[in-house]
Amino acid sequence: MNIESEPDGGAWTESGWIDYGFKSYYALLNCGFRLRPTAGTASGVHPVPLGFGRVYVHRPQGFTYDGWIKGLDAGET
Fold first, then answer.
1. Contact 71, 59 (CB under 8 A)
2. 0.70 surpassed by pTM
3. What share of residues in the chain are helix, strand, coil (percent, to 5)?
4. What count of Cα atoms within 13 Å lies in the side-chain half-sphere of residue 1?
């Protein structure tokens, strides 16, 4: 899919944003970057409601920032 073909009335469609995100993510992985998959709202630029994109990490002993990062790195999402 060509991202340039996705504009819909001056804005990208949801499928265009998804395609763009995946292409960007895999291009960085293919360059050797080790990435943590996280989420954000992209409020104002992405056509989804606030809080739509979230990543949850299973922390059975309770939440700590260091534990959350460790779980994220381990793929416990």
1. yes
2. no
3. 40, 5, 55
4. 15
